[in-house]
Write a structure and sequence with these properties.
- By secondary structure, the protein is of the alpha/beta class.
- It folds into two domains: 12-25 and 41-351, TIM Barrel; 388-537, Rossmann fold.
- It has helices at residues 12-17, 42-50, 64-77, 106-112, 116-136, 167-181, 214-221, 223-230, 256-266, 281-284, 291-299, 310-322, 328-346, 374-387, 426-433, 478-489, 502-509, 526-537, and strands spanning 20-25, 56-60, 83-86, 141-142, 189-193, 235-238, 272-274, 304-305, 389-391, 406-412, 436-441, 459-465, 493-500, 517-521.
- The strands form three sheets. It has a six-stranded mixed β-sheet, sandwiched between helices.
- Helix 11 (291-299) packs across helix 12.
- It is globular, with a radius of gyration of 24 Å.
- The protein starts with 11 loop residues before the first helix and ends in a 5-residue tail after the last helix.
- The mean pLDDT is 90.
C-alpha cells in the first residue's frame, strides 16, 4: 500500500505545491519584514499555505521565541503539515537570537589537525544540540551540514562554512554532525551537490563554472556526499554551478545528468533532492522565473526552494504535466518522498507505516527551556578555545593605565547587518571598560583620508571578516588593508584581533611586525569576542 493519498484527495496543483518551499520572515508582523523582495506579507503567505497547499517554509530572522510562535502559526495555516527549514549550519542561534550559536564548521577542521577524534566528538555535539533546539521552536528541517571541500581560499560563499579542506576530514566531521542530529526527529541536508568548495564566484550573484574532470570530482568533491548518504542524510541540496565535465548545457540544479543519473542512480540516493534557493543570481539571471522550476523538476529535484514566483512555478509545472512534458509519475515519486520525510518529523512513531494519522498531528509545543542549555554553551566555549590561535610576544602589553587616548577600532563589512555587535557585546564593552574609545568602520562609513600627521593613538584593531553570501569576495576589504598598513607604519597598532576567516589571518600575519600580538578566533558571536579578548584584558597583560 502507498503512503500517499488518492489522486482525488489532492488536486494536481496541490501535489505540485507540496514540492515548493517558500521563504518567510521569522518575525510575526508585516512591519518587521526585513527583506520584502523575498519575504511575503502575511496575506500572501497565508494564501500560499491555505489555498495553494505549499509544502514548506524556510525561516530567517527573529528571536528563537518568536520563531516558536511563528512556526505554530504557519502550521495552523497549512493544509498539510509543513516542513519548516532554516539555514542553521552554526546552530539555531546563528539565525535566531537566544539559542546556541556555534563557531563555523571550519573551526572543527582546525581542531581535527591536532585531534581528529575530539573534532568528531564536537561535530556530533553540534549536530545534536542544533537538532534539539530546532525542534524546540518548531523547525524540523536543519539545512546542514555543508559537505563541500573548501580547497579554494578565495571561495566567497563556502569558506568557513565547510568542515575542512580535504575529503577525509570533511567526510568524518560532517557524518559526525549527521549522527548527532539523527538523535532527534529532524531532517538533515548535505550541500551543495556535487561540490561547491573550489569556486571563487559567489553563486548568489552569478553562475560559477567548475572545470574539473570527472576523475578529480570522484576523488575530491564526491566522497563527502557518498559518506553523508551512507550515514543516512535525509536530503541533498544541489549547487548552482556549471560542471562541463558532467553537463555542458545546464548547471547542476537543472541537470538531469547530475541530479538523476549521478546522484539518484549512480550514488543510489533515495532521499529528498532539494534545489538551492532559486532566487539566487546563478539561476535567476539565466533562466525564467517559471522555466527554472520546470527544468529543476525535469532534472530530478523533489523540493523547489524559494522560487521567484511560487504560484507561477506551480502553474508552470502543472502545465508541463498536462502537456506531457513531465510525466505524472515524476510528480508522484517526489511527493512520495516528501510524504515519507514529513511522516518522520511530524509523527516519528508512524514512520514506515501507511497510516495518514500524521497529517492531522498537531505540532509539539514550544520548549524554550531546551534552548542554550549549559551543556551546549560549554561545548561552544570548548570549540572556541581549542580552535583559537594566539601570538603574544613577551614584551607585548595592553594597559588601561596608559596616558592619552586609546582607540578600539572595529572594522566590519556591514554593521547594520551584524547583530553580534552592540554596546553590551565584549568587542565594545571590554575595551571601553579599560578606557578605549570605540570607532566602527564599515561599508557605510564615508571615505576618510588617513592623516599621517595626527598624534599617535594606541589602537586595538578588531577585524570581523569572513566570506558572506552576496558579498562576492572572501578576502580582506581595501579599507581594512589601508587601516592596518597605516597603524603599523605609524606605530599605533597595539594588538590585532581577527574574527572569522583563517585565510584573512594568513594575509595579515605575513606582514605583521613580530612584536605585535594577535588573537584569531573562528567565531564572531559575543562568546567568541569574550574568549578572545580575555587574552588581552584578563589581568591587563598578555
Amino acid at each position: 500500500m502507498s503512503t500517499l493519498p488518492d489522486w482525488e484527495t489532492l488536486s494536481l496543483p496541490e501535489w505540485v505545491a507540496q514540492m515548493v518551499v517558500v521563504r518567510a520572515s521569522g518575525h510575526l508582523f508585516d512591519h518587521q519584514i526585513r527583506y520584502p523582495a523575498w519575504e511575503p506579507p502575511t496575506a500572501t503567505l497565508r494564501h500560499w499555505l491555505e489555498d495553494l497547499a505549499v509544502g514548506g517554509v524556510i525561516l530567517l530572522g527573529g528571536s528563537a521565541a518568536e520563531v516558536g510562535l511563528r512556526s505554530h502559526q504557519l502550521q495552523e495555516w497549512a493544509k498539510i503539515p509543513l516542513l519548516i527549514a532554516a539555514d542553521i549550519e552554526e546552530g539555531v542561534g546563528q539565525r535566531f537570537a537566544g539559542a546556541t550559536w556555534f563557531p563555523p564548521p571550519f573551526a572543527l577542521a582546525a581542531i581535527a589537525q591536532q585531534d581528529l577524534a575530539k573534532a568528531e566528538q564536537y561535530a556530533e555535539q553540534m549536530g545534536a544540540f542544533t537538532a534539539e533546539e530546532a525542534l524546540a521552536i518548531g523547525i524540523n528541517w536543519v539545512l546542514a551540514p555543508v559537505v563541500d571541500v573548501n580547497n579554494n581560499p578565495q571561495n566567497p560563499v563556502i569558506n568557513v562554512r565547510a568542515f575542512g579542506e580535504t575529503p577525509d576530514v570533511v567526510s568524518r566531521l560532517s557524518t559526525a554532525f549527521i549522527r548527532g542530529a539523527e538523535q532527534h526527529p529532524v531532517l538533515t541536508a548535505a550541500k551543495h551537490f556535487p561540490g561547491h568548495g573550489d569556486t571563487a564566484t559567489d553563486s548568489h550573484l552569478e553562475l560559477p563554472i567548475l572545470t574539473h574532470a570527472q576523475k578529480r570530482l570522484a576523488e575530491v568533491e564526491l566522497p563527502p556526499f557518498k559518506r553523508a548518504i551512507a550515514a543516512g542524510v535525509d536530503a541533498v541540496m544541489s549547487a548552482h554551478l556549471q560542471i562541463p565535465a558532467l553537463d555542458e548545457k545546464y548547471p547542476a540544479t537543472l541537470s538531469y545528468r547530475i541530479l538523476t543519473e549521478e546522484l539518484r542512480q549512480r550514488l543510489s540516493f533515495g532521499g529528498l533532492i532539494v534545489t538551492d534557493a532559486l532566487i539566487m543570481g546563478a539561476i535567476a539571471n539565466g533562466y525564467g522565473a517559471n522555466e527554472a522550476p520546470v527544468l529543476a523538476v525535469e532534472a530530478g529535484a523533489d523540493i523547489l526552494l524559494m522560487p521567484i514566483d511560487p504560484a507561477g512555478a506551480i502553474q508552470a509545472i502543472c502545465e508541463a504535466v498536462e502537456s506531457g512534458r513531465i510525466a505524472p509519475e515524476r510528480i508522484q515519486a517526489s511527493v512520495e518522498r516528501i510524504w515519507q520525510a514529513k511522516q518522520k518529523v511530524c509523527a516519528p512513531d508512524l514512520q514506515g507505516s501507511t497510516s495518514h494519522a500524521w497529517e492531522q498531528v498537531s505540532p509539539p509545543p514550544v520548549q524554550l527551556e531546551r534552548l542554550a542549555q549549559p551543556e551546549a554553551i560549554a561545548s561552544v566555549a570548548q570549540i572556541l578555545r581549542d580552535s583559537m590561535q594566539v601570538h603574544h610576544p613577551a614584551n607585548a602589553r595592553l594597559r588601561s593605565t596608559q596616558t592619552g587616548e586609546l582607540r578600539n577600532l572595529i572594522l566590519v563589512d556591514d554593521a547594520l547587518e551584524r547583530d553580534f555587535l552592540g554596546k553590551h557585546t565584549p568587542a565594545i564593552a571590554l575595551p571601553q571598560a579599560r578606557g578605549y574609545q570605540t570607532e566602527i568602520i564599515d561599508c557605510h562609513t564615508p571615505e576618510l583620508l588617513l592623516d599621517w600627521n595626527t598624534p599617535p593613538c594606541p589602537t586595538l584593531l578588531q577585524l570581523f571578516i569572513r566570506g558572506n553570501p552576496f558579498r562576492g569576495s572572501a578576502g580582506q576589504t581595501q579599507i581594512a588593508q589601508d587601516w592596518f598598513q597605516f597603524l603599523v607604519k605609524t606605530d599605533q597598532l597595539q594588538a590585532l584581533v581577527i574574527y572569522g576567516s583563517p585565510y584573512i589571518l594568513e594575509q595579515f600575519i605575513s606582514v605583521l611586525p613580530p612584536d605585535i600580538s594577535y588573537v584569531f578566533t573562528y567565531g564572531q558571536m559575543p562568546s567568541a569576542q569574550g574568549i578572545a579578548l580575555q587574552q588581552y584584558f584578563d589581568g591587563e597583560t598578555l
